[in-house]
Amino acid sequence: xxxxxxxxxxxxxxxxxxxxxxxxxxxIYLVVNIVWLAINYMxxxxxxxxxxxxxxxxxxIGWGLCIVIHYxxxxxxxxxxxxxxxxxxxx
Length: 91
Fold this sequence. Notes:
mainly alpha, single chain, 86% helix, rod-shaped, 0% strand
């Protein structure tokens, strides 16, 4: 009984930690890419009018895909990952 209560508490703490780390990653992504796009559209694009309008979006799109993978792996798929961690700890 105590073992199950500990496991439930561990799972809850790990899920909260994973969500917090994801939210930190998302906030950093938003702040950095807002600054990145602002610099590009205010300074780089006017100085180089021959650049395509979508060129500054490469970095945010690539990082955005990583954000989606982070969410799918650690937040929505976190329960499976936590079970694997528990199984390794029990060995």
